[in-house]
Amino acid sequence: MSQRLDITGLTSGYGRIDVLHDLSVSMGIHGNVGLFGPNGHGKTTLLRTVSGLIKPSKGSIAFNGVELSTLTPRAIVELGLIHVSQGNRLFPDLTIGECLSLGAFTKAARGREEASREEVLRIFPKLGERWRQKVRTLSGGERQMVSIGTALMSCPKMLVLDEPTLGLAPKIKEELCIAVMRISKQGVPLIVVEQDVEFLLELSNHLYLINHGEIAAEIKPGQSLDHAEIMSLYFGK
After folding, report:
1. Are 210 and 24 in contact (CB under 8 A)?
2. Based on the number of CB atoms within 10 Å of its own CB, is 58 exposed (0-12), middle (13-18) or buried (19 or more)?
3. Distances 230 to 30, 41, 192, 237 between C-alpha atoms, Å
4. Helix (H) or strand (E) segment spanning residue 173
5. Is there a contact between 153 and 159 (Cβ–Cβ < 8 Å)?
6. Separation CA 136–CA 119 (nearest Å)
7. Which of 15, 70, 91, 211 is the most exposed place for a label (fewest CB within 10 A)?
8. Per CATH, is 5-235 categorized as 3.30.390.30?
């Protein structure tokens, strides 16, 4: 079954400040989705609203027909929509193994914990080498591997990644990009926010530019753009 996220007329933000303005978009129907655009224009706010961390002031968010806007983050995770936040938000004094075990708390994941762990370690073999190491002693790239690995332990139906390569050294970034591609090839649909548009073009066949809290442009499956055209979308002609 293909996974579908339908957002209609979404307005959301922080306190009295709206960041998203009547945003509507459907994601997942054409495979992986890439979101890009200038910093501070609503990409992270959109993901946080979808995952229940922010309540919208208006609009609808439906995942496979189930309305999410009134659900708790835990209930949304139980549905299989898993969000890996920007910034490696892990428990620093837990080991890698303990973090991964925490990811298998949903009903769907408990019975598959061992198989999921084996799959995570195939994707991220470095985690197996440092299994008993505490998270606070890991590099930024390794912590990002733990974050994504913990999300995979929840048996996601759709995986949402917020700038997974942010701040990483080039070699580690390349390793992580390869791992994300491997996850996609195993059938987990992805929604990825990323500033590296070339990576998004390789990973996704459907891209959206978010600017000033709105969908400013859409790159549809089969539509090719060169670097100059992408820059014109960012900054205007």
Report:
1. no
2. middle
3. 20, 17, 17, 10
4. helix 170-185
5. no
6. 24
7. 15
8. no
